[in-house]
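Recall that a protein's primary structure is simply its ordered list of amino acids. Everything else, from secondary elements to tertiary packing, is in principle encoded there. The following example makes that idea concrete.
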Amino acid sequence: DGASAVTCIVVFEAHKPHNPNKNSWFGYFKNDGFEKIRNKGRIDYKKLYEKKIKKEWLDAYFNKTEKLGFSVLKNVSANDEWLVEAYMKTNYNILTKNLFEDSIKDYITYRFYNNLTKSISTKSKSSAEIKFDIKKWKTFTIGKLFEVTGSKTTPKRDLQEIGKGVYPYVTTSSVNNGVEGFYDFFTDDGNVLIIDSAVKGVCSYQAQKFTASDHVEKLIPKFELNSYSAMFFITLINLEQYRYSYGRKYNQIRIKETEIMLPVDQHNEPDFKFMENYIKSLQYSDGIL
């Protein structure tokens, strides 16, 4: 079902209490160069582990190196989380227009598959070519931009008794925009972002009024959100998925405290118009509405 727990290795030195004023080093040791092959287990096909990755990991550990998206130094106590996912800064250097276009394609595929639109267009909504410069972006918490709250839980059997309709039933599934059927009943208003707080922390956009299963969190915008700017936000929020799993859920407190980087206007406030126009400039955006 895709559920997983976070593996954390902690190194202690016996008979030596930790200095509370000293930072601890956390490393994100995930991509080790091995591939999992069916019936063969973990195989080092690329021959990278001994030559490059092992050296990089050991050098970072012994030198206590901080590297964006890989490692961080943090002062922690017994009451804090002891894993890197809680403190590591997301590497926005990996953000490309392809990631935004992937969000658009997933959304319009959902709309086409569920007969919410009659066709899919590969065209852009706008012919303008727009680029972004992450160095000029600023950091904002999700809690500043959205009201974070739970949706009303509706058992699927209740909806089945009501019957099929036009309102989506949103779940914690990571496919089909999280939707498992359409019924003639709704409990929550649309034009909101949705985050699965049970498994992977997947963020999606729900334009329509809907019902939901449990562990479906709503991000209600404190600004004028539309389907274009929504594609921008879900792309950024989904960059945070590496932090969360079945063992470390993306709950409402963590959602509110999540920091994302955004383009800003001359007043250093989020530039929502730029976000909308950027999405409109990308392939497939003509099929969003």
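The mean pLDDT is 92. The chain has seven helices and 13 strands.
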